[in-house]
Amino acid sequence: MNQEFILALGEIEREKGVDKEIIFEALESAMISSYKKNFGSAQNVDVEMNRETGDVALYALKEVVGNEDLTDSNLEITLSDAQAINASYQLGDTVRIRLEPENFGRIAAQTAKQVVIQRIKDAERDVIFEDYTDRENEIITGEVRRVSNRNVFFDLGKTEALLPFQEQIPGEHYGQGERFKLLLLEVRRTPKGPQVILSRSHPNLIKRLFEMEVPEILDGVVEIYSIAREAGSRTKIAVFSKDPSIDPLGACVGFKGNRVKAIVDQLYNEKIDIVIYEKDIAEFIANALSPSKVVEVFIKEREKEALVVVPDYQLSLAIGKEGQNARLAAKLTNWKIDIKSESQFADFLEEENLTKEELKQQFAEANKIDEFLEDLDQEDKEDQEDSLETDLENNLDLEVEDATEEMEEDEDQTIDSEDE
């Protein structure tokens, strides 16, 4: 060990982020094992490395025992011999005796090389795991390194990350050397080190991209309420503004659509519909079916079901290709949505022998009943909780009374015994 070794450790600490104290401690532990293995010693030994010079000192540790009690000279030393080294030693103390075994320097150097390499790898893995765990659910930029079995491996600089097939955007091409923005989905510990899992299809990728491109979202003035996504095809995102003076739709779209275009360019030209979230669920459902116009919305609060009426010429637009628009709207609002054209709605009223006003009245009455049942359920729940609490109190009182009676009986018996 010498000054060059210390300088090398300092360089490793700067480049890899591995604390050199970790390597020092691992080396000291390894050298103890190496000494015992190579010199066949049953001694308790200790190794100290000078953090400044790299010099190594080896010590035998022996317990001080009485002169007649010595049983193992490898582990024990008599009181007289100990006091010959230092008069302050007493029985039970531990004496450190410096060892100078032949060829230990060469053995130590061989051990150092192996341990340093392995410990650097282990420590580097720990550093990578901690670093990337703290960044889960964040946007990260990676360069395609290779494609294997439909999985894509990205170079993140410090480590290699995996984009599984199921987390890819369908139809997207990943050429070697190309750079992509990805969501850091998860970091897993594996026997081969930390494995960083990426995603291009997760809805949170959309959220993070909007936070990057729209300052109002990053500042919290405009908030994202919900996102429904079918990766590579279409996404719906519901937003609202906390500041009445700021238009959330305009903030997200940007001047001449530059903000939303920057996001679309990152997503294999995936279509993005930005809609306004409204507290009134009927208005929110109507907005969610954009770009289709909505004539009327009938809602059932308890079942979270909605009947939506749209113009005849916009029925296909409201449903979307293969039902995509309606499906995404349902995911966005978390409501079941039944869409009918005006003519279909008229046929439905005729079949049910109802007028539009009567249907509205039915929905309104159903919602009132639902509200009443919910209140009843709540009251019943509170009554049950009160009843349970009363039962517990009564049982506790009975147990206390029983215990008191038993104690009184025991006292009476004791008094009777004493009298006898």
Please render the helix and strand layout as text.
Layout: H1 3-16, H2 20-39, E1 44-49, E2 56-65, E3 76-78, H3 79-85, E4 94-99, H4 104-133, E5 139-148, E6 151-155, E7 160-163, E8 179-190, E9 193-199, H5 203-213, H6 215-218, E10 222-230, E11 234-241, H7 248-253, H8 258-265, E12 271-276, H9 281-288, E13 296-300, E14 305-310, H10 315-319, H11 324-333, E15 336-341, H12 342-352, H13 356-419
Parallel strand pairs: 2-3, 7-9, 11-12, 14-15
Antiparallel strand pairs: 1-2, 2-4, 5-6, 5-8, 6-7, 8-9, 10-11, 13-14
Helix pairs in contact: 2-4, 5-8, 9-11
Count the helices. How many? 13
Order of neighbouring strands in the sheet with most strands: 5-6-7-9-8
Q: Which regions contain 5 or more consecutive residues with pLDDT less than 50? A: none
Structural class: alpha/beta
Q: What is the N-to-C succession of helices and strands?
A: HHEEEHEHEEEEEHHEEHHEHEEHHEHH
Please write the CATH class name of the domain at 3-131: Alpha Beta
Overall geometry? elongated
Distance between the termini: 88 Å
Subunit structure: Monomer. Binds directly to the core enzyme of the DNA-dependent RNA polymerase and to nascent RNA.
Subcellular location: Cytoplasm
Pfam families: KH_NusA_1st, KH_NusA_2nd, NusA_N, S1
Family: Belongs to the NusA family.
